[in-house]
Amino acid sequence: MEAESGPDMRRRLILLAALAVLPLGLAGCGKPKPPTGKWEGGADRGGTMVAARVEVMTNGQVRIMAPDITNVSGTAPQLAMLRDRLASQLATGWPDVEPRPFDFDGDTFRKPGGFAPQMVWDKATNQMTLQLYIGANPAMPVPLRPVDGFHDNPWATG
User: Fold this and answer.
1) What is the 3-state secondary structure (H, E, C) of 45-113?
2) What is the pTM of this model?
């Protein structure tokens, strides 16, 4: 029997090498696991005030609550009162928030099968940014900080 040589042999070697590497490539194609933990924060921009909490559970389900007030204006004491009202809504409403599924691609959470980002996670800082959609307006990014437990004041630092 004559040994193969030339272009046919090279094609077969390339094919065999590709098939040998294929299982290694497929092993890295698993669905990314979402980060588990709690995040909270608030924002007050462009006449909109929002307070938010997010909890990503170990099973990948997400609890999220973000009460908001639009067309906000007033004095500093009036704005502080509105922040207190949103913080109170978070505290009293949180126990009733049901976990729900989200698609996660490694840094962005979307509603199942959805396109619009709902939250973006920065792995390096463990910061979550909620993308709040109010009406037909573009998303309002609400930066959330990681916390061990939720606070009475979601705007608090530290």
Assistant:
1) ECCEEEEEEEEECCCCCEEEECCEECCCCCCHHHHHHHHHHHHHHHHHHHHHCCCECCEECCCEEECCC
2) 0.79
